[in-house]
Design a protein that fits this description.
This protein has 399 residues and is an alpha/beta fold. It has 21 helices and 7 strands.
Length: 399
């Protein structure tokens, strides 16, 4: 970071900073403009005072001009954001496609778009998980249509499992939600996971922000219930629902151990006809188990409700519970503190993703790095020493 940017970012005046490093404001202005180079001891003082954000390279080397950034038209960015806010599903879909893209020029465009987004704490983010066959899509469609009747706009992000071998995904949720997918007040987007948990968290969160900017009131994020994506989704929603089948026990449900512990609300689905009794038994079993554990989650007792998504029974009660839950969280301020934590988590996911991309795209192709790998293969270099050398190389050449 160049010194001028640092001072502006931290809100420090030239006069104040010059005083801190023991020089005149005129000298500092000359250093900032590039008219003069600071002496070595002054550079070291600047680096120390800025915690390394400004280092010697920032004085000796001009920053690279990113041609992709140069070609971004700020007027077109404003137009994109305006179209999203005005309800253009086409613009919304295109922006989410940019979010999912790995191309650098697309990611640069996304950054510019997001800089114009506003914070929206009026939405309700709902995570929904459960094993295949539990009826997640039917549940989301049924409750989604109920919410639309209440004049709410509904969006669905379905995290779709991708094949690690082929990279292909199983995009089926849009076809299963036939009525919801064609409703003008609904938006459904299958989102391939690409087999990378960090990518899921970052891209799903960013897609969700696009939906919030478009004015959707309720956003459902659906996961498979058999992988690690559940934890990532749990950490980006306001309430997390786990759907169960009308049969007892986690083992019978086929639910991955620990997912029940993430639940804010447990819903026994498919309470239809002859399964009504089985659903009630499952409901009582889980209520008893939760009571015995005696551990309220974040100060809330986890509720167990039953419904029939097929017949649209019990959905009103579920929505009423969600509203009470959200209102309680807002009243005790955990809603807003969680949103802040989610924002911070997004920042760190972005950092991890960026560093991983640097390593995968640049380090792995570098000849010096290849030599290090060969020495490790030949047992001429320890993994610890190799890690140190690679990290030093990355720091010197990328930051």
């Amino acid at each position: 970071m160049i010194l001028k940017e640092y001072l502006k970012f931290c809100g420090v005046t030239n006069k104040d900073f010059a005083k801190r490093i023991g020089i005149s404001p005129v000298s500092l202005s000359r250093y900032i403009s590039g008219e003069r180079l600071p002496e070595k001891e002054i550079i070291l003082k600047i680096s120390s005072l800025t915690d390394g954000a400004v280092n010697p390279d920032d004085f000796y080397f001009k920053p690279k001009i990113d041609n992709d950034n140069e070609n971004i038209n700020l007027n077109s960015i404003s137009e994109i954001v305006k179209n999203i806010r005005n309800g253009s599903k086409k613009e919304l879909a295109k922006t989410i496609t940019l979010v999912e893209s790995k191309l650098k020029k697309h990611q640069e465009l996304v950054k510019k778009i997001f800089e114009k987004f506003k914070t929206n704490n009026k939405t309700i983010r709902i995570g929904v998980t459960g094993v295949p066959g539990v009826g997640k899509s039917t549940f989301i469609e049924s409750i989604g249509l109920k919410l639309i009747q209440r004049n709410l706009k509904v969006a669905v992000l379905a995290i779709d499992p991708s094949s690690k071998e082929t990279g292909g995904s199983i995009l089926g949720d849009k076809t299963r939600m036939e009525k919801l997918s064609v409703h003008p007040k609904a938006f459904i987007r299958p989102s391939p996971s690409s087999g990378h948990l960090g990518g899921v968290a970052k891209k799903t969160y960013e897609s969700m922000l696009c939906l919030e900017e478009a004015g959707y009131d309720v956003i459902f994020i659906e996961t498979m219930g058999v992988g690690q994506a559940e934890t990532a989704v749990h950490d980006m929603v306001d309430i997390f629902l786990v759907l169960l089948l009308p049969s007892g026990g986690d083992e019978l449900q086929g639910i991955k151990k620990g997912i029940i512990e993430l639940a804010d609300l447990i819903v026994v689905n498919k309470a239809d006809n002859d399964l009504q009794k089985a659903a009630e038994i499952t409901q009582n079993e889980y209520k008893t188990a939760l009571h015995i554990s005696g551990k309220p989650k974040n100060g809330f007792e986890v509720e167990v409700l039953i419904c029939s998504s097929l017949k649209s029974k019990g959905l009103e009660k579920i929505w009423d519970y969600i509203q009470v839950f959200i209102n309680k969280k807002k009243k005790n301020h955990t809603f807003f503190s969680n949103r802040q934590s989610q924002l911070k988590e997004w920042m760190w996911n972005s950092i991890h993703q960026t560093v991983n991309e640097m390593i995968n795209s640049d380090l792995s192709k570098n000849e010096f790095i290849k030599k290090i790998q060969l020495k490790v293969d030949d047992k001429k270099l320890s993994v610890f020493r190799a890690t140190q050398l690679m990290c030093n190389f990355l720091l010197k050449n990328k930051f």
